[in-house]
């Protein structure tokens, strides 16, 4: 062995005696990789933690309200096959899940079964056509109530009315331009229903010996004016028929209280007062005087104007209406009526209304009214096209008008109801004709003080119910046309209608 | 240099030419430590992530309802110095935070400033004494409403009343044993206030030519029976004073509608009917016939019984009352009245009531009634001890009675109101005496058809307001005692009272 070989052998031996440096090197690489991976994992976990925090900044802060939120979201997540809806206070199944409440013509636990030739109920005025708007605005329209929310009778200022809600109502009228509220009093009612008689009471005489005021309305009129006034059998006021029949007698000493409904329910006509003179008081029911149902030609400034949430946002069940009142004495008598009959409007109702109106105000009303107007316009177009083919049935004739809100000189016609006339001599009871021949339940003309030759059909139901109604009416009119049209024409006509 | 030295030198050189193995070793240790630390951090982060997930299993699932929950919790977190409360629909400050609504005798933005010798308003019947119970049950009593919650007029069965709520009401009466509901009809009203006239209407004649029914009540009576009946000036019914004045005439052909209030408002006495005969109908107002206010000696089964949420859970602002009705014809007429005057009770009100009653039912009513009874018992004990020292003022005398609910033969007396009599000849107007001498605003005796020598003070306010009332009454009685007692006796007496 040479010297050099010896040296190398010794060196190797020394190297072997030391730790295995190559293994160490490999370990070092492995450790480096592991550490890099671990550090990266840490980084990802930390970033995702802060990302989670920033996306749900307060999720850990939700305490007492979380359970109620979860309940509400669980209920709303039930699809009900797209033909129904579940609510928190619906009937519950054994498992505790609420039952789906099905649209007309659907049944079954999940509303998946279609009921052929079911009854189409368009008697009521449920404005479900606005439900999709509220689903689109779910976040801003939700409201959470604590168990101790407003337990007392009065608000902080001793009144029964939320000043915040009053402010929102005034802002909305200013934005829409349909009624003047500046310097006017506002009275809330449990629906405008309660305000009908509150207004009649306020306008009737305080004197015990005075004559009974005559309450009147123009045919066709909303039936509750009569039935509610009749209910109390008051010595102070009495429903006394159609306005027109008193036109030459309103100057004498009899006191009149005239209901003026504009747009009118059922026929959607814009109306003006009929009776004049110092003995006549007017109650202007403006439930439908909003841009989705009506042109807004002028900003009204009447002595007593009634509005309701039901036909503004579609929340009928909430039961909130309001009166805008010019004279303090009338306002005070209306407030006294509300105090005495229900001691104000439910505070839950007032809070929820405030939430809903704030959503409407956020878009200066445009979003809600654009949505509503577009739906109603397309519905009226479909319907008027269909009825133009019929000689047996006619729709009310509505003239286009200007609308300051949409800045349009001539806006489309978008009434809430179809006021249908049966034109044939033999069809004296139009309500029965639709029921018997098409299984459609409308509201009979005589309910509105009108001829039985008329029937009112609601156009503000949800999309599916409206589609079913149109299909049923198409069937009815197609029967009529079979006698007068060539089949090809009739088919073509309906081909267009159903697209 | 020897051979060996040469070898070592060469080896060192070779070693120097290789990576520094010692440094590597140290790096290895550093890496190991870092990796261990990093892995530990990984472990901690992962564990905390899963812990967080398991504690808030669904926090990521809350979507549309989160914002409303956060708003409600933010408002409820305002302490208002413990002397007030903030609500979602309260007035808001510039920053958007709701203003604190302060208790009586406190003021300032955060209710921190005490107002010395302020007016103690115990005129109203706000049952704030139950508010702490609802704060204790915050999670189960909260309710979240979606923007599309019950937009329609009717429930799924076409009615205006939640069947779930009706069921809860029946269960509660069964649990408490205060009224029989089996086979009885239930009518909801916007507060029992609305049901007063609904019942009067239902009991009055349908015939147009019949006589006017006399509506009567026993003095002292709840003022709204008279003022509400007067309001309508109906040909069908008329408030006609005190029941006792008709005791010998109820057998003739006149129809009577007698209000029977038990326990009575204002004096807490258990009452029975006074008039009898086939022409007499009875409206049993049982607003206070719950275990926190009254003994429950028997389960009542009257023709028409009225209850209200206001005095059961303390939610006056919610405006929900109900009637339990035996006869179908009476039930139908009441339902017609509700339909015509408000078209049912707000659906928000019905949902919230359902939530609240479910909380009461969860503990078989024990939790709520134990809480309420204990508060009211201690208040009455303080008050009766105080008034026992006075000869100028006296409290109503209430006898102990058995209570089937608490399984007690003799339970303490726990009325909702003190019905105070000014005994001195010169104190003819007791309301003014308390106002002038102690700045206490009660409700005057003549409002209840009684002598002005009486005044009603509410005992169901919150703790602080009640304490202030007692201190003010102590001051009043101490003035009286200065003339008759030795100072030491008087001091001693009050020493016990204020502990």
TrEMBL record, chains A, B:
GO BP: amino acid metabolic process
Transmembrane intervals: 28-51
Keywords noted in UniProt: Aminotransferase, Membrane, Pyridoxal phosphate, Transferase, Transmembrane, Transmembrane helix
Alliinase EGF-like domain mapped to chain residues: 63-118
Low complexity biased stretches: 1-18
Cofactor: pyridoxal 5'-phosphate
InterPro entries: Alliinase_C, Alliinase_N_sf, EGF_alliinase, Ethylene_sulfur-biosynth, PyrdxlP-dep_Trfase, PyrdxlP-dep_Trfase_major, PyrdxlP-dep_Trfase_small
Key word Transferase present: yes
Domain Alliinase C-terminal positions: 120-475
GO molecular function annotations of the record: carbon-sulfur lyase activity; transaminase activity
Pfam families given in the database record: Alliinase_C, EGF_alliinase
Region (Disordered): 1-23
SUPFAM superfamilies: PLP-dependent transferases
Keyword Transmembrane carried by entry: yes
Matches recorded under Gene3D superfamilies: Aspartate Aminotransferase, domain 1, EGF-like, alliinase, Type I PLP-dependent aspartate aminotransferase-like (Major domain)
Family recorded in the similarity comment: Belongs to the alliinase family.
PANTHER family with a match to the protein in the record: BIFUNCTIONAL ASPARTATE AMINOTRANSFERASE AND GLUTAMATE/ASPARTATE-PREPHENATE AMINOTRANSFERASE-RELATED, TRYPTOPHAN AMINOTRANSFERASE-RELATED PROTEIN 4-LIKE
Name of the featured protein: OLC1v1024445C1
Organism whose genome encodes this protein: Oldenlandia corymbosa var. corymbosa
Lineage of producing organism: Eukaryota, Viridiplantae, Streptophyta, Embryophyta, Tracheophyta
């Amino acid at each position: 062995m040479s010297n050099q070989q010896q040296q190398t052998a010794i060196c190797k031996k020394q190297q072997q005696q030391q730790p295995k440096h190559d293994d160490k090197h490999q370990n070092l690489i492995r450790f480096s990789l592991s550490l890099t991976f671990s550090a990266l994992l840490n980084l990802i976990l930390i970033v995702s933690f802060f990302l989670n925090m920033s996306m749900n900044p307060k999720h850990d802060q939700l305490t007492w309200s979380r359970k109620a939120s979860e309940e509400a979201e669980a209920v709303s997540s039930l699809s009900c096959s797209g033909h129904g809806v579940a609510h928190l206070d619906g009937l519950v199944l054994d498992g505790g899940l609420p039952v789906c409440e099905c649209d007309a013509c659907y049944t079954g636990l999940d509303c998946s079964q279609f009921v052929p030739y079911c009854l189409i109920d368009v008697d009521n005025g449920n404005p479900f056509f606005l439900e999709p708007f509220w689903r689109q605005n779910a976040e801003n329209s939700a409201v959470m109530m604590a168990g101790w929310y407003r337990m007392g009778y009065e608000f902080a200022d001793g009144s029964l009315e939320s000043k915040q809600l009053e402010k929102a109502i005034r802002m909305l009228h200013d934005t829409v331009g349909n009624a003047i509220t500046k310097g006017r009093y506002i009275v809330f009612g449990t629906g405008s229903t309660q305000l009908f008689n509150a207004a009649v009471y306020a306008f009737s005489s305080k004197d015990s010996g005075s004559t009974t005021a005559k309450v009147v309305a123009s045919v066709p009129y909303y039936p509750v004016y009569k039935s509610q006034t009749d209910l109390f059998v008051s010595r102070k006021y009495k429903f006394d028929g159609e306005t027109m029949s008193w036109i030459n007698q309103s100057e004498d000493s009899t006191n009149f209280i005239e209901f003026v409904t504009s747009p009118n329910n059922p026929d959607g006509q814009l109306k003006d007062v009929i009776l004049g003179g110092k003995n006549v008081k007017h109650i202007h029911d403006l439930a439908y005087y909003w841009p989705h149902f009506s042109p807004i030609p002028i900003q009204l400034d009447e002595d007593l104007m009634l509005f309701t949430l039901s036909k503004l946002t579609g929340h009928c069940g909430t039961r909130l209406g309001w009166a805008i009142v010019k004279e303090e004495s009338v306002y005070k008598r209306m407030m006294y009526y509300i105090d005495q009959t229900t001691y104000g409007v439910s505070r839950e109702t007032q809070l929820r209304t405030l939430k809903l109106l704030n959503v409407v105000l956020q878009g200066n009303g445009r979003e809600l009214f654009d949505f509503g107007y577009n739906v109603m316009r397309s519905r009226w177009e479909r319907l008027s096209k269909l009825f133009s083919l019929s000689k047996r049935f006619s729709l009310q004739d509505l003239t286009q008008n200007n609308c300051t809100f949409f800045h349009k000189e001539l806006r489309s016609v978008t009434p809430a109801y179809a006021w249908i006339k049966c034109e044939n001599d033999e069809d004296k009871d139009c309500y029965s004709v639709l029921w018997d021949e098409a299984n459609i339940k409308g509201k009979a003309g005589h309910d509105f003080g009108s001829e039985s030759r008329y029937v009112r059909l609601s156009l503000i139901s949800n999309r599916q119910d409206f589609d079913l109604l149109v299909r049923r009416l198409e069937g009815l009119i197609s029967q009529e046309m079979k006698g007068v049209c060539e089949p090809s024409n009739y088919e073509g006509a309906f081909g267009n209608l159903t697209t």
